[in-house]
Design brief:
The complex is a heterodimer of chains A (about 240) and B (about 625).
Chain A lengths: L2 E13 L4 E13 L3 E5 L6 H8 L7 E6 L2 E2 L7 E3 L11 H11 L4 H14 L15 H13 L5 E5 L7 H17 L3 E5 L3 H4 L4 E6 L2 E7 L4 H15 L6
Parallel strand pairs in A: 3-8, 3-9, 6-7, 7-8
Antiparallel strand pairs in A: 1-2, 1-4, 4-5, 9-10
Helix pairs in contact in A: 2-3, 2-4, 4-5
Chain B lengths: L1 H11 L1 H27 L7 H49 L4 H41 L13 H28 L2 H5 L11 H23 L8 H30 L3 H4 L4 H50 L4 E6 L10 H7 L7 E11 L8 E3 H11 L10 E6 L14 E6 L13 E4 L8 E11 L4 H14 L5 E5 H44 L1 H9 L4 H41 L7 H31 L1
Helix pairs in contact in B: 1-4, 2-3, 2-4, 2-5, 3-5, 3-14, 4-5, 7-8, 8-10, 10-14, 10-16, 10-17, 14-17, 16-17
The chains are: A alpha/beta (about 240), B alpha+beta (about 625).
């Protein structure tokens, strides 16, 4: 069985003073192992809520999130890349990456070797020991990416990882994600507004008003896929970036 | 409207305001307590001698209260600026919505007003409760009983406290007004840009080694070699070096430690240790001065209070040894007035009955033309005196004289040709310390050319109890009107000892508590303020799913570093100060250790460190939960 995630009739609602707001409504989807999945949709369509439910940051009101056919355990290691990067300003790049391993209670010497190896692999050695204020946006997000990757997650959640970056920085991050997907056979679930960003994925889920609107599988070249995404977004009337 | 807005702000940021409220209330109770002393002293059954000391205390207290007012103002200023920082974003939003700076100032005015009013009543309540403690302290210091048990409400002190509070309010209000005026829209809306520049690790290690060298180089001469120090300038230089070394140490220690420990990856990367070090580094940058000052501020109570507390015992013991009789009188013989007879004659003229005394001994002292600066007692008279004073007897052979003194290191500067000198420990005049610089005892047949110098009388009262003795003494002192008599009484000397030690103890306790409260208060505010500035870092840690236990452990370590290091330094400095005070105390007698009081100070210090830690946990936990 290659299925990693299965979502069955997933619903999430928030109760305000008088009315109930439905953020997600009857979502059914599956994500296979090694897939690069993008989730798109207009603002308020429930993309981030869906990602948070999958990452166990939040809990659904009803329905099921199955991980490898079972209820997802909280302890399962995964990487999470935040929209606003969330690097700790007081720590340098090396220490920010080490943080993820420290939480996993990894041995210090192994940790050190691992960080250096990964930094070499993803060409980050030049700014590894710099502090966030000394780095460009792309470099920061690459550090955040490595922090997510270093725990050997096999699964990375990314919440609009390129939204705060310029074009070249965004490309750097996407290439790093692509390398992880192709070389490490890792699974990526990414929320994005950006069609260019989503074109790197192998599958795109479109959400509209909390419901699954469309599922798009990558066929042909990246450019062709980008066009298809564009068309779907136009249908959704989204002010997309690219 | 402004009052309502201010009230809403208080309600919304109640935890931050609660912190300031605590500070204000403590300070107000402190003001009130020490204002009441003047009136509280009247509740003690003080003799006329002790009343003189209490009036000195009252006079000095006015200056001390002014001094403490300035220290507390500085503390309040820090607390108010903390509150202002916590609200400035809200004010920034209000400004963008069209509110004027004048309106913001009004809101701040009402906030401060509400805070001051509430803290006044809280502080007063606390002051009333603690007033019982103050009167107990005074009765302990003056060794007197309290006339009646009470909780003391003094309207005069309340008026004075209100006046101090009004001044403080005005001061803070002007400060906040200035802040609002100075701040631009950008300052209100965005956090202040942090100084990003990191200190160089190698240079910090060099500074650290240098600071250790300075500290060790100055510490040992100031402790072990203190008594051998020859000039004041030596003391000045060593002390200067110690202060400089301390600040240099605090400036360099976190970066140096972080650099050194980063080499040991298994330890450095474990349990958020690297985060702990970086946080310590950041806090340290803001708190170098505070931590340096805290070392000295905390050392003062640790050394001063146990030292002054010893004085009470020393004076009590000394009074037994150096005032062994109830009364000692001396009178100078006047060459111009040969009619001037002895003390016994004066007592007769004053119609003082001999029945007042159980034992009386009168004798003369002499001076010689050849040795004008010193005086002599006849050997036979001194032998009798030793019986009265319980002193060791002196054996003088022919062509021998004795030098009698009890000051450590005093030496005779007399040399009588063909005579031998003996050194004997003893005294003539009653005192509360070993203060006899020296006189001489000679056989009467060797003092043929000597002239009369003074007439002396020592006596004990005919009384069985202390109360009776006091009554006899009062009667005696009332009757005697002769100005030429120098009178020392055991009771007055005892009271002088009690009064002096009470004064010194009181000032030591006052300054000790003041410095302690100021030091830890300042440290606490700085620590909380820096955690407020770093709260985003903790939120990020939570987002990365860092276990709560790891974050708590890191905070514990940070608190330990920030409070622990100044604590260790304070202990080391207290040793220096204590060795200095001990030199002074040794002049009065042999002190007994009174370090028990230090545990109270340590308890307060660690209480503050724990409070600071739990406050941070609470504050950060709440923020993380929100996110």
């Amino acid at each position: 069985m290659n299925t990693l995630f299965e979502l069955h009739h997933l619903c999430k609602s928030y109760k305000s003073e008088k009315k109930e707001i439905k953020a997600l409504e009857d979502i059914n989807l599956s994500i296979s192992k090694g897939e690069f999945v993008a989730i798109m949709g207009p603002s308020g369509s429930g993309k981030s809520t869906l990602l948070q439910c999958m990452a166990s940051f939040d809990f659904p009101t009803s329905g099921q999130v199955l991980f490898k056919g079972k209820e997802r355990k909280k302890e399962e290691p995964f990487g999470f890349i935040f929209q606003d990067i969330q690097l700790l300003d007081s720590l340098n790049g090396y220490e920010n990456i080490a943080l993820a391993l420290t939480i996993q209670k990894e041995n210090g010497n192994i940790m050190d070797q691992k960080i250096r190896d990964y930094a070499k692999k993803f060409e980050m050695e030049s700014f590894l020991f710099q502090y966030p204020y000394q780095m460009s946006g792309g470099q920061k997000q690459k550090i955040a990416f490595l922090r997510a990757l270093i725990v050997n997650p096999k699964l990375i959640f990314a919440d609009e990882p390129t939204s705060a970056l310029d074009v070249s920085s965004a490309k750097q991050v996407l290439q790093a994600l692509d390398t992880f997907h192709k070389k490490e056979k890792g699974t990526i679930v990414m929320v994005t507004h950006d069609a260019f960003c989503a074109s790197f994925a192998s599958k795109v889920f479109f959400l509209k008003e909390g419901k699954l609107f469309k599922e798009l599988q990558k066929e042909g070249s990246t450019k062709e896929f980008w066009k298809k995404i564009h068309e779907t977004l136009s249908m959704l009337e989204v002010d997309h970036v690219s | 409207m402004y009052l309502k807005f201010a009230f809403l702000q208080l309600k919304q940021k109640k935890k931050d305001f609660l912190l300031v409220l605590l500070f204000f209330s403590f300070a107000i109770s402190f003001f009130y307590l020490f204002q009441t002393i003047e009136e509280q002293i009247s509740f003690l059954d003080l003799s006329s001698n002790l009343q003189k000391f209490s009036s000195v205390l009252e006079d000095c207290l006015t200056f001390l209260n002014i001094f403490s007012f300035f220290l507390f103002s500085f503390l309040f200023l820090s607390a108010s600026s903390l509150i202002f920082k916590r609200q400035k974003k809200d004010f920034g939003i209000c400004l963008t919505l069209g509110m004027s700076k004048k309106q913001i100032k009004r809101i701040l005015f009402f906030e401060l007003f509400l805070l001051t009013c509430v803290s006044f009543f809280l502080g007063l309540g606390l002051g009333l409760l603690l007033s019982r403690g103050i009167v107990l302290l005074l009765s302990f210091l003056f060794d007197q009983s309290i006339k009646e048990p009470f909780v003391f409400l003094s309207f005069l002190s309340i008026k004075k406290t209100i006046f101090s509070l009004f001044l403080l309010f005005l001061f803070l209000w002007l400060y906040l007004k200035r802040l609002v005026k100075k701040f631009s829209y950008k300052d209100f809306l965005y956090p202040k840009e942090k100084k990003k520049k990191k200190k160089d690790s190698i240079f910090s290690c060099f500074l650290f080694v240098l600071s250790l060298f300075f500290l060790l180089f100055s510490y040992f001469p100031l402790t072990v070699g203190f008594s051998k120090m020859e000039t004041f300038s030596d003391l000045f230089w060593y002390f200067g070096l110690l202060i400089f070394g301390t600040f240099l140490f605090f400036y360099s220690v976190p970066i140096c430690f972080s650099f050194l420990f980063s080499k040991k990856k298994t330890w450095y990367l474990k349990d958020l240790n690297f985060f702990t070090f970086r946080q310590w580094e950041q806090k340290n940058n803001r708190m170098v001065l505070t931590m340096g000052f805290l070392c000295f501020l905390f050392a003062i109570p640790l050394a001063l209070v146990p030292s002054t507390l010893q004085l009470k015992n020393i004076f009590e013991e000394n009074a037994k040894t150096y005032a062994p009789v109830d009364l000692e009188i001396s009178k100078l013989y006047s060459l111009e007035n040969p009619e001037n007879k002895g003390i016994v004659n004066d007592l007769k003229q004053a119609k003082i009955s001999r029945n007042l005394f159980s034992d009386v001994f009168s004798f003369d002292s002499y001076q010689s033309f050849e040795y004008p600066k010193v005086f002599f007692l006849a050997y036979e008279d001194y032998q009798t005196l030793t019986k009265f004073y319980h002193l060791p007897k002196v054996e003088l052979k022919e062509k021998e004289y004795a030098f009698v003194s009890n000051v450590v290191g005093s030496s005779s500067n007399l040399s009588i040709p063909s005579y031998q000198e003996k050194k004997v420990e003893g005294f003539l005049f009653l005192s509360i310390g070993a203060s006899n610089p020296g006189f001489y005892v000679m056989r009467k047949e060797d003092m043929k050319d000597f002239v009369l110098f003074k007439n002396h009388l020592v006596a004990n009262y005919k009384a069985s109890s202390e109360k009776e003795k006091r009554r006899v003494e009062e009667r005696f002192l009332k009757s005697i009107k002769e100005d030429s008599l120098f009178i020392h009484t055991k009771l007055s000397l005892q009271e002088a000892g009690i009064g002096t030690s009470a004064l010194l103890n009181f000032f030591a306790l006052y300054l000790g508590i003041l410095f302690l409260l100021f030091g830890i208060g300042l440290m606490f505010l700085k620590e909380i303020s820096s955690v407020y500035e770093e709260e985003e870092e903790y939120v990020r840690l939570s987002l990365l799913k860092t276990p709560e236990s790891m974050i708590k452990k890191s905070l514990r370590k940070q608190t330990m570093f920030l409070y622990g290091l100044p604590f260790l330094f304070s202990i080391a400095y207290a040793v220096i100060l204590y060795s200095f005070f001990k030199l002074v105390l040794d002049v009065f007698g042999h002190p007994q250790n009174q370090f028990g009081i230090c545990f109270v100070f340590l308890f307060l210090y660690f209480g503050c460190a724990c409070f600071s830690y739990f406050w941070e946990i609470q504050m950060l936990g709440k923020k993380r939960k929100k996110v």
